Amino acid sequence: MSKISMSNATPALIANTTVHDLVPAQGGAPWRIFLHVPSGPVPEAGWPVLYMTDGNAVIGTAVDAMRAQAFYPTGTNVGWGVIVAIGYPVDGAYDPLRRSWDLGPPPGKTYPPFYEGTSEVRTGGAGKFLAFIEDELKPWVASRVTVDASRHALYGHSFGGLFALYALFARPSSFQTWIAASPAIYWEDRVIDRFLEAFEAAIPDGLAATMILSAGEYETEKLAQFQIGAEDEEKRLKQKKVTRTDAFARAMAQRLDALPGVRASFELHAGENHMSILPVTVNRAVQAAFAVRRDAALC
């Protein structure tokens, strides 16, 4: 049997992806930016770009989903594009404290610490986070990569899905395609509704926005088989009546789809729960952002 020498092991890197810690212009903690640029020739119009929240958790999945499909565009309808995943300088998949602030719509609230001896949890920084993306991150990307300004997409999951909705309502021209996976619409007594109502009252002329909302089969009132009879079954069922992820997302899609300049849809993913839906919807974001035939991408 062959022997493997651990001393000769090398890190497994994400293809054509670089990592950059960007400090905002006004100072403060940096965001970790994962930038994937395809190795092929730049399209005449520039690269389409997919921006993603929770970058540490999604970058590997997004890159590999695109690489697996973009080699066969006539069979997959997926082409090549630039991926910009916004995360944090941490080793884990998430920075719960910072993402709570960045992704929560204003005005926000203050909550007890996640863990004893740590800082209080604050929400409400979505406006500042969106301003960073629009005013600092996008120009930074454009200074390094030739991009197609007419093909920018934004993906977010859970709190990130809530942020995607907020971004559409607050700056509807910032992206053309929006993917809100398992959005936390219920959050803080549906604070997102105040931004939705303002958006409905002043939809920009010429708006052409595509919004994909989604939820997993086990984000409905239905429990997964492994959850039935578990110690937290009663607590989980009670929380479902509060979050109502599928019902709220479905209703939001119907409401948005009735607006001029907005095409919205809802997808229910079989067999998925709130966390297992992540790679499924990352792939859907890749398909939507980098569609070769965009008129058929959501059919």
Secondary structure layout plus pairing:
Blueprint: E1 17-22, E2 31-36, E3 47-52, H1 55-70, H2 73-76, E4 82-87, H3 96-103, E5 110-111, E6 121-122, H4 126-142, E7 147-157, H5 159-170, E8 177-181, H6 187-190, H7 192-201, E9 209-216, H8 233-243, H9 245-257, E10 262-269, H10 277-289
Parallel strand pairs: 3-4, 3-7, 7-8, 8-9, 9-10
Antiparallel strand pairs: 1-2, 2-4, 5-6
Q: Structural class, from helix and strand content? A: alpha/beta
Shape by Cα distribution: globular
Beta-strand level of the residues, as a percent range? Answer: 15-25%
**Tally the helices: what do you get?**
10
Placed side by side, the strands forming the largest sheet appear as 1-2-4-3-7-8-9-10
Largest sheet: 8 strands, mixed
Instruction: Write down the secondary-structure element order.
Output: EEEHHEHEEHEHEHHEHHEH
Spans of 5+ residues with little confidence (pLDDT < 50)?
none
CATH topology grouping? Rossmann fold
- Tally of distinct domains: 1
User: What is the mean pLDDT?
Assistant: 95
* Annotated CATH architecture: 3-Layer(aba) Sandwich
Question: Tally of extended strands?
Answer: 10
Distance between the termini: 51 Å
Give the radius of gyration.
20 Å
CATH class: Alpha Beta
- Share in helix: 25-40%
Q: Assign the CATH superfamily.
A: Alpha/Beta hydrolase fold, catalytic domain
Oligomer class:
single chain
